[in-house]
Amino acid sequence: MQRIRNIGVLTSGGDAPGMNAAIRAVVRTAISQGIKVKGILRGYRGLIEDDVKEMDSYSVCDIINRGGTILGTARSSRFMTDEGRRDAYEIYKKNNLEALVIIGGDGSYRGALEFQKLGAKVICIPGSIDLDIASTEYTIGFDTATNTVIDAIDKIRDTSTSHERCSIIEVMGRNAGHIALWSGISTGAEEIIIPEKKVENFMDSVATRMMIAKKKGKKHYIIINAEGVGNSIELAKFIEEKTNIETRATILGYVQRGGSPSCRDRMFASIMGAKAVETIEEGRFNRVMALQNGHFVDIDLEEAVHMQKGIEEDYFRISKELIR
Ligand code: ADP
Q: How far is the CA of 54 from the centre of ligand 1 (A)?
């Protein structure tokens, strides 16, 4: 087996707190094994544009505690084309890369799957605040993001109670309801609206339940709305008109992406980064790092890309049971 001497690392798609810890672990583990590392700036776009810098142990100092990604990230429409990926592969070869570590979400995984068909060797690490990657129970950034969300909801609840208001809080997640479900259970929200469980005329039934709760003496009504479901401001208007209860929408937005990563995100991103390099050293490529049944494993990239992720049915059922 030929020893790998040069690898690249990039972050792609949506950024997530903990990506820096993964970059640091990739760089330090590789260097300790005598492997040189190049950092590719701004994801696949930077790869096409040859935006590459040499990394050493010191280039990843003081980053484990920082949100975002020191390599930058981007979405690249050129990489979606055969021509763009062929250009990227020329740059991969020009930089003498023998493997590429890609830290990103499921879109980045699909890009990686296409890229390896040209001859590149790839290893993916799950980076997504949305927990929407089917192959793994853990994605970098979800823990920090959900903690940011529950902190915000707790604060909104205080003022909501004082004014006896209904608060609709819109959280991220793209088409996945994990952030909404976890933060909804963790804050005792009265309603959790997620795309996976969206029902016809749900707004009417929310309004009815709200009026019942008000009669029972509830002083606040917290509704968590996942962004994939729809417009929270319109929902607030509808509810207020229907119930006569003052209703405000808060869209948490990008605050959910930032901030210092939690212990879990620093820890698991570090382990996955180190294990990604170990996988390369063992001569196994086109793999994705994953947490399955509480263990860190690596699985085939193509298999991972074709997996489907739903919501945890148990969590959803229990979320309903806990609302009284
Ligand atoms: P994330 O990785 O966070 O899910 P995106 O879905 O935006 O974010 O994907 C990141 C990048 O991966 C895209 O900008 C694009 O360059 C690349 N990509 C996504 N899907 C594909 C695909 N089917 N084929 C090739 N490249 C893709």
A: 25
Averaged pLDDT score across all residues of the chain? 95
Residue 198 pLDDT exceeds 90: no
Atom of ligand 1 nearest to the CA of 75: 14
Query: In angstroms, what is the C-alpha Rg of the chain?
Result: 22
Task: Select from 80, 82, 125 the residue to mutate for testing ligand 1; criterion: most ligand atoms less than 8 Å from CB.
Answer: 80
Q: Are 92 and 120 in contact (CB under 8 A)?
A: yes
Residue 109 pLDDT more than 80? yes
Give the C-alpha separation, 213 to 190, whole Å.
Answer: 9
Average confidence (pLDDT) over 195-217: 87
Q: What length does the chain have? A: 324
pLDDT reported for residue 199: 83
Per-residue DSSP letters for 25-89?
HHHHHHHHTT-EEEEETTHHHHHHTT-EEEE-GGGGTT-TT--S-TT-----SGGGSHHHHHHHH
Contact 104, 292 (CB under 8 A): no
Surface-to-core class of residue 214, CB atoms within 10 Å of its CB (0-12 exposed, 13-18 middle, 19+ buried): middle
Distances (CA, A) of 36 to 62, 95, 157, 286: 20, 11, 50, 19
Whether 130 is a known active-site residue: answer: yes
Ligand 1 atom with the shortest distance to the CA of 45 = 16
Distance 13 CA to ligand 1 centre (A): 6
- Distance from Cα 110 to the centre of ligand 1, integer Å: 6
